[in-house]
Specification:
By secondary structure, this protein is an alpha+beta fold. It contains five helices and 14 strands. The relative contact order is 0.16.
Length: about 260
């Protein structure tokens, strides 16, 4: 009986967590039609937080936890920590996955990469086993896995956050130290927001959460408290990088509603 109980305990442990510590490469098309290769992202210094979902009810909270953990690094390490979400077996469409994310408030689809995983190119079995959901954190040129848990064990804010910090350190990504401070109002904003700063501003850059430049306003002669128009951009979280007249920079987040 003792041997049976021990065997069951080991099987349960394997179902929720595993010891695989090195990622397996893949190349797949995301739901925006862009090709993505895992090792290219890791080699460039990105930290990838990846969630496989069915999608299912039990997948909601762990996926939301992982997404929120990624967003918590958006200001300190803009564009460096990314959230990927994929169907486990490649039998859910992009529209179905996006609807699941939105209807369950998992996160903002514009701030993540979603893969229908057609053809099962991103094979969950290559990462130490299967179980829904399955959350992993990867980073560094060594393609190291710092967090790899499944099922209820994947709903681990502290574990995911610690893993991201470890991956950032290995990837050589340092937290951004703001040399200037400014405020954004209103925040959240609907279309326009104003920047308040002690010095004249010569450039405002709006970046997506994954570090892409969405727009840039330049003021060669400097401008006091400029306004920024986001009316042409989708709802979501954006990073606002401000450069003052002395070339000091700072960064804050703004939410467009």
């Amino acid at each position: 009986m003792k041997k049976i109980i021990t065997s069951i305990a080991l099987m349960l442990a394997a179902a929720i967590s595993n010891g695989q510590t090195t990622a397996t490469n893949w190349t797949a098309m995301d739901c925006n039609g862009q090709s993505d290769t895992l090792f290219s992202q890791l080699d460039s210094g990105k930290v990838i937080v990846f969630a496989w979902v069915m999608p299912c009810v039990a997948c909601v909270n762990p996926s939301k936890t992982a997404y929120n953990a990624v967003q918590s690094f958006a200001t300190s390490n803009p564009g460096k920590v990314r959230f990927y979400l994929a169907d486990d077996l490649g039998d859910a469409s992009c529209s179905a996955l996006s609807s699941w994310v939105t209807s369950n408030n998992v996160g903002v689809t514009a701030n993540m990469k979603i893969f229908s995983n057609a053809g099962n190119l991103i094979a969950e079995s290559d990462f130490g086993g299967t179980g829904m959901p399955h959350i992993i954190v990867m980073g560094g040129a060594s393609h190291t896995i710092y967090f790899n848990k499944m099922d209820r064990a994947a709903n681990d804010t502290a574990g995911i956050t610690s893993a991201i910090n470890s991956a950032i350190g290995t990837a050589g990504i340092s937290s951004m130290s703001n040399k200037m401070s400014f405020s954004i109002s209103p925040n959240p904003a609907q279309e326009l927001f104003s920047i308040t700063c002690e010095k004249a501003i010569k450039k405002v850059t709006v970046l997506s959460i994954d570090g892409r430049v969405m727009k840039e306003d330049q003021y060669p002669n400097g401008k006091i408290n400029p306004s920024v128009d986001l009316s042409q951009h989708a709802k979501g979280i954006y990073l606002i990088k401000v450069t003052d007249a002395d070339n000091n920079t700072g960064m804050e987040r703004v939410i467009k509603q």
